Amino acid sequence: MRIAQLLTLISCLFIGSAMAANPQIKIATNQGDIELELYQDKAPTSVKNFLSYVEKDGFKNTVFHRVIKGFMIQGGGFDIDYQRVATGAPIVNEAKNGLSNDRGTIAMARTAIPDSATRQFFINHKDNPNLNYGRSDGYAVFGKVTKGMDVVDKIANTRTSTNSKLPGMRDIPVEQVVITEISVLPVEEK
């Protein structure tokens, strides 16, 4: 009887630790908060890279600078004065991780070079299968919105235009969408 109880306890502890393995974050914006689970089990390099910026307050007072309704919202690369924010070294593209660019997922933004992602990220406003690995080199999904998809929708519906501070870029919100902070949420006891 004691062995069975001990095995049950060990199983519960193992399951609990496995469930708590993926970090939870909150993106605080001037439009509301977005909470996400980051899939460090599926995209360890992308999650580690993203969290390295979070730990240094690297996203504080940056903006969602590219917003396309029915596609995605992109941020993390420009401050509130539309100046590029310093980046670390680019990371390997983890798009071949089995995750899809579905509505509400967060992925690493990059240039046309697959292994060029640094700090910019985007949240998919709708399913975007054209961004998945297989049709091209893909864009690495590394998490999903768990709370605040209404905020993503609100941001995606923001009026956009061009901006003289970002020449050559379109789809810039007329009213700035500011990321005031990104923080790691404490692990909840279940």
TrEMBL record:
The keyword RNA-binding does not apply. One of its GO terms (molecular function) is peptidyl-prolyl cis-trans isomerase activity. The keyword Nucleus does not apply. It comes from the Bacteria. One of its GO terms (biological process) is protein folding. Residues 1-20 form the signal peptide. It catalyses: [protein]-peptidylproline (omega=180) = [protein]-peptidylproline (omega=0). Its EC number is 5.2.1.8. Residues 32-184 form the PPIase cyclophilin-type domain. Keywords: Isomerase, Rotamase, Signal. It is an enzyme of class 5 (isomerase). PPIases accelerate the folding of proteins. It catalyzes the cis-trans isomerization of proline imidic peptide bonds in oligopeptides. This is Peptidyl-prolyl cis-trans isomerase. It comes from Motilimonas pumila. The lineage of its organism: Bacteria, Pseudomonadati, Pseudomonadota, Gammaproteobacteria, Alteromonadales.
